[in-house]
Amino acid sequence: MLNCMPGVASSASLLTAAFRVPSAGLRTSSCLANICWYRLRRGLPPNGNERGPLTDLPDWTFADGRPTPFSTSGQQRRHAANRQVAQQALAAMESVDLAAKADELRQRVQQAEAERLRPGLRPKGDAMLA
Question: Where is the composition biased (Basic and acidic residues) (predicted)?
Fold first, then answer.
């Protein structure tokens, strides 16, 4: 059997053993593997309970608005990972803004240099006679 969910091999084998029909030869292990690969190909976790509002949000809230403590270590780990991703996104946005400002400054300098040189150029040839 293909194991795409580490640490869950025993429960998956129990599931396949429970759904076997010896007389018909029907087995669901390939179905479980197909579901697993379907989820992995789409960037989803192998188990549907790893992400989502039921696992990410707190189970209860204080009436006065205080933040609730994390109910599981998984919530705390996901919160830390989300905070790190948000900090990386902010740093990337700041670097893009800095690059845009530097490019704008470079264009202004080039335009000022072109304006400074423009009066010093004189027409030549037929344009000079006109």
Answer: 109-118
